[in-house]
Amino acid sequence: MELKLYNTYTQQKEVFRPINPGKVGLYVCGITAYDFSHIGHARAAVPFDVLYRFLMYLGYEVTYVRNFTDVDNKIIERAKKNGEKPLELSNRFCHEYLVDMGALQCLLPTHQPRVSDHMDHIINMIQKIIENGCGYAVEGGDVFFSVDKSQNYGKLSGQLLEHTRAGERVAVDSRKRNPADFALWKAVKPDEPSWESPWGPGRPGWHIECSAMSAHYLSPRFDIHGGGADLIFPHHENELAQTCAACGEHGGVNYWLHNGHLTINNEKMSKSKGDFKPIREVTERYHPLALRHFLISVHYRSPLSYSASKLDSSSELLYYVYQTLQDLDDALLPYREAMSEEAEPTSEAKDIIIKLKSEFDKKMSDDLNTPHILTGYYQVALKFINDSIGKLEKMQEKQRMSLLVSLVEIERGARKVLEVLGLLTTLSYAEILKEMKQKTLTRAGLSEDDLSQLIQERIMARKKKEFEKSDVIRAELAAKGIALMDVVGKETVWRPCLPSQATNSSD
Q1: What's the pTM value of the predicted model, to 2 decimals?
Q2: Residue 259 DSSP one-character state
Q3: d(CA 248, CA 442)
């Protein structure tokens, strides 16, 4: 099986060949920690977590580095507004980000460096850039990178040097030799954090931090660099130029991967526009697994449009998956102790198991093609489970044992898919289903007592043959995403469903 990844640098899919066989160096740009993270941040984090998981699934030893920018203009401005120290503010939001990532089942990277802890590495790299004739200090203590000295500047982004705009984050400075030159080191300003350097006290520019930290934790040249498409220029273009300027032919990245934007109302979500949705605002109403599934429901390189109806669909799909696995768990319980290790799965089950793995491997190896993985043969596997559960009690022992082994093997395959996609938690199926039902009630604006009362009202209406009233209650609940089911010989039960009048609203 060959893993193919789309390389932004070459603008084509390439077979992945690690620098060191069996080992992978992966660096992903993290957040600037000055506020709670929004779902755009989750859009960047989740696909690369899937990549991390899939690389390990393939047997690679992965060193995964994701940084925190904890020194930045936005952090300083927010800290002044809040009346707190910049590093205390950024430390707080670094922690909150990890809480959100944990809820989304993102594995912890191998290393999570912060800019403030790596000033020596940053200063040393700037010195190398200057020594190699690619950087220069100016009056006042600032240091700039000379883009004219970078032979391949613009190759990653496709930007021609003469077309690049000066200063994405800083104003044009007359001290620059070329308006496109960018800051490596910024001289200290009043009431800002600073560190000592050969050019005077100050702090690093935005781009140099990732060059220095990736070189330190991986090497000047490593396998995969990931981030959002909005980082291709100027951040990653400048990062590449800096690393090559400092380390020569030993610097660079073999595969550049970039995820598409998350949009609301067909526009890229941004805090500056005030249209961003914090992760926690979404997970108050939807299970974090539903949000994670939504984030991988389109290809990672494609734009993803946020809507409540899409989250409803992700919730519906995952509830069905987990309900099926819970039903299987319940059905297997009486037989687990007596299960034979010598029994063979049925030929039908073997075929499903092989094709489930084959389809998963094929899609994931094609540039992490996650959409529709939980459909196709995954749904065939779930259907086999549902069709088989009711047959167990009626079968002879030998046939039953073969079917039991079949179900266990199919469940194992289904769990492995969920695990690599990050859709499996440490909770039991029953606990996940309970959490998903609670989120449904939250979206419906109902408590468990409220719902119980409505169910009782409907039961009484049916007993009195007030069927119109009964149908109204059922329809109103269905519109809120709650399906009522009248089980023969049992009391009425409910489960989440797609709201019967779901819209494409982004609310």
Answers
A1: 0.94
A2: E
A3: 56
